[in-house]
Amino acid sequence: MTSQHFDSGCGRDEHDYQIDSLSISAKPSQCAQDDKACPNSCESYLVCFVPNVQRNYQEITRPVPSIFVMNTKRPPKPKKPSNPDKGGASYIDRRQSSVYANVALAHRRKSDAQPGSYRNAAQLTGRESLLPLAIVITLFVLWGFTSGLGEVLNKKFQSVLHLSKARSTGLQVAFYG
Amino acid sequence: MGEWLLLLLAVLDADKSRAYAVGPLTYAGWIVRRFGYRWSFITGLCIFGIGTLLFWPSAKFSSFGGFCGSSFVVGSGLSTLEASAIPFVAICGPPKYSEIRLNLAQAFQSTAAVAALVLASYIILDDTPPKDAPLGGQTSSLDTIQWLYLGIATFIFLLAFGLYFAPIPEITDEDLQEQTHQTAEEHGDNTYEDQPLGKQYKLFFGVFASFCFTGSQVSVATFFINYAVEVNPALSDKDAAHRLAVAQAVFAAGRFAASVILIKVKARHLLLGSVTLVVAFLGTAIGAEGDAGIAMIILEFCAKSCVFPTMFTLTLRGLRRHTKRGASWLVASIASGIVFAPAMGAAADAMGTQKALVVPLVAMAAAASYSLYLNLFKSKELDEDWASDEPAGQSESSDDMEMVPKAQRTEEQELIQEGFEKFCK
């Protein structure tokens, strides 16, 4: 085992790091249960080490735009939204940054096909769905506005171009359709 | 030659309606299924934007053919948008509130339509040219429209650009399939089985009902002014147009009201109730005289406002992996104005506009039979989602980790734990 696998962002030397890491095997999972147990300070190498795993873990499970995340205490997410259909490759790439998960991957290949790289629309809670819905409602407004305008425009064309009534009625039908 | 024949020709001219019949069934449906909602929105907006830009030359050269052509492009774009936006709103979020969401979204849509009507009649129709003005002398009034459309086009392209970065959640047909499976298991329902598309009878009936309903809606709206003038000869065309605007405002308000009512009332009950009211009002309008008849039609507008979104969502429920295809079919059914408006025109030619309301009445009765079918035979299936307050396929959610379904979360934890142990050995 070499220490180069670890992200040594806390300024500790490798020796300390290595020894201590063997003695705390149960910590990462405890930490994953409670965000508050993982402050981002470097008072001990444990605290330094665990947030990295935590961050990687969140990237793996939820590679979603940060704008979704209502809870502000979370670490920043990748900004670019993923393509819904091509999640597989980037999903594994992100995993490789996590030491633990990477080792586990060698033993559990089947989990590659687990969570997709997009948010499942039907699993959003009411609050989470508000923003996407608001965006799509602007599409509805745009659509309504254009069809309303089209009606008036049709009358205008009728008067400007001296269309027969029947012809422009057809156009109105077209707009309603 | 009867006027209805002219009308028929006019409708065949109506490229936009044809776009609705063609778009969702071909490329629009395919884009939603293959690339997802985001790209469907962007494609739709781009086509829509190109269509609005095409209004410029057709207004410049005062060409009706050009106007129809750009209408077709706009219609293609809009139908692409609809084929994805309507099912998106229905699916995005807890299934229990599907009908509320769609009703609310379409309420905003109708409100915008009314706002555009009012706005445009102030801006544009005030300078209506005299009837015998020379053709070339009136381009100034079209100028306003050109700039308005240029503004809309700019907004559309900006929106399309923004949508590329916007947080649009996605759902595939496989996800839907899986979720319904899970929900069925949670409810202890062992009768769950996968049905091929050919056996989705509810979808077929739903598309037929939607076809009839929108046909009825279009024909009533198209002949509203003729009807108003016929039952109340004292009215001028302009007064009748004002009453149509009132009816459309009531229509928008009805949708807002429906989204509130749906909090307490089951969607299938609301659908049955409102369709029954629509049939009653239409029937009365055939017999009524004077302003009473017009009032009946306005009430009919109010009652039918919630029918399309509610029917759409109820039809999509339980379709599982066929959801996106079903949604395309339902959007394509909007094109039924091609059939029903000329039919009503022919009837109006033969026996007067008032009696011709029989055509939309019969169509509406067909739609009513669908809501009766839903209430009688599909009630158990439709109530399943209604019972649960939570997102689909998710038995519980905690506040802290709301973004991660609990099942996935523990698995990831296990994965990390497992890796850690292997690493330490």
Describe the secondary structure blueprint for this structure.
The complex is a heterodimer of chains A (about 180) and B (about 425).
Chain A: H1 14-23, H2 27-33, H3 45-61, H4 88-96, H5 99-107, H6 130-161, H7 165-176
Helix pairs in contact in A: 2-3, 3-4, 6-7
Chain B: H1 3-13, H2 15-22, H3 24-35, H4 37-60, H5 64-91, H6 98-123, H7 139-165, H8 173-186, H9 201-222, H10 224-231, H11 237-264, H12 267-287, H13 291-304, H14 307-316, H15 323-332, H16 337-351, H17 353-356, H18 358-377, H19 379-387, H20 406-424
Question: What does this 3D model show about the protein?
Answer:
The complex is a heterodimer of chains A (about 180) and B (about 425). Chain A has 7 helices and no strands. Chain A folds into 2 domains: about 5-120, no CATH class; about 130-175. By secondary structure, chain A is mainly alpha-helical. Residues about 1-35, about 35-115 and about 175 of chain A have low confidence and may be disordered. Chain A has helices at about 15-25, 25-35, 45-60, 90-95, 100-105, 130-160, 165-175. Chain B has one domain: Growth Hormone, Chain: A, CATH 1.20.1250.20. In chain B, about 80% of the residues lie in helices and about 0% in strands. Chain B has helices spanning about 5-15, 15-20, 25-35, 35-60, 65-90, 100-125, 140-165, 175-185, 200-220, 225-230, 235-265, 265-285, 290-305, 305-315, 325-330, 335-350, 355, 360-375, 380-385, 405-425. Chain B is globular, with a radius of gyration of 24 Å. The chains are: A mainly alpha (about 180), B mainly alpha (about 425). At the A-B interface, helix 2, helix 3, helix 5, helix 6 and helix 7 of A face helix 1, helix 2, helix 4, helix 5 and helix 6 of B.
